[in-house]
Amino acid sequence: MRKKLVLIIGLPLFAKRLAKELQQFDRGNSYLSLDTYYNLGDKLKFLFYIFKADVVYSINGTLNKSLALDLAFKLKKRVVMHWVGSDVSNAIEQYQKGNYLEHYLKAEHLTDASWLSEELSEIGIKAKVQYISAYAKQERVEDFSTEFAVLVYIPENRAKFYGVETILELAAKFPSVKFLLVGSNKPKSHSLENISYLGWVDNISEYIKKSVVAIRFIEHDGLSQFVLEALSKGRYVLYNYQLRGTTYTPTFDSLCEALSKLEIAFEGKKLELNFKGLIAIEKDFNQLKVIGGLSEFLTK
């Protein structure tokens, strides 16, 4: 059978990582990541390789004009879009304004979250749920530290979108609980002594290990890497989206209730690692299911 060439474009970090993982898993085909957003050299390479390519796979969906996708459609290449979060919100907004290209709807569509698939169906896009983050089974998961700490990722430039007001209210309600805020620097108006502002960190994994609970309370989300990383380390995740292994907390009251139960269990030395989360990662995000499934779809 002829070797196929898959060009991976879109979000550069995702594209580069996935191309490497797909190539290691499937040596019978070729996977090449190209940064057609910011890299002039890769843009020129795309113009060369597009004629040889069988599939153009974009990790980031769009219904608006894209020079790379336009060329792929014109050359009648197979186009696959993988929707991952804010691109869905943008597409729905543009669709409602009538600002979209009809043939973009006819591409093949994937998404990494069931709720994104439901949102896309509202504008006539049928997107298959296919995860793109794989986790190897860990031989050893570190136990909790001696302190009950809660980790939250809130980038400073999008603090409101990431639920900072809710987190501050939660920290005020639980003054005995230490909150670690990654992504934000300490504000001048800082008043809560149980919040540590850590700013940007190079390795969030180290802070996940130091925590017992991770919270994600965001206005709109794709399948969060922060959530998956926390689950893979046996931490409890309070999440305002429904995902196996996490605790569904769509409201402030549900956050309070879930956090209180975990704190009481921890202080009573009755809180084990989040084994439901570890099992979910092992079953849903193993390499065979994620990378194998994606490879099979792209080269069928």
Structure description:
By secondary structure, the chain is of the alpha/beta class. The protein has two domains: 5-134 and 286-298, Rossmann fold (3-Layer(aba) Sandwich); 149-282, Glycogen Phosphorylase B (Rossmann fold). 38% of the residues lie in helices and 18% in strands. It is built from eleven helices and twelve strands. It has helices at residues 12-25, 40-49, 67-74, 86-96, 114-121, 164-173, 204-210, 225-232, 252-267, 275-284, 287-298, and strands at 5-10, 30-33, 55-59, 78-83, 108-111, 127-129, 149-153, 178-182, 195-199, 213-216, 236-239, 247-248. The strands form two sheets. It has a six-stranded parallel β-sheet, sandwiched between helices.
**Principal-axis shape:** globular
**Terminal CA distance:** 11 Å
Q: Structural class of the secondary structure composition?
A: alpha/beta
Mean residue pLDDT: 95
- Major sheet attributes: 6 strands, parallel
Helix content: 25-40%
Unreliable sequence segments: none
Count every helix, treating DSSP H or I runs of 4 or more residues as helices. 11
The CATH architecture assignment of the largest domain turns out to be 3-Layer(aba) Sandwich
Strand order of the largest sheet: 2-1-3-4-5-6
What name is given to the CATH topology of the largest domain? Answer: Rossmann fold
CATH class of the largest domain: Alpha Beta
Number of domains: 2
Count of strand segments: 12
Question: Nearest-angstrom radius of gyration?
Answer: 21 Å
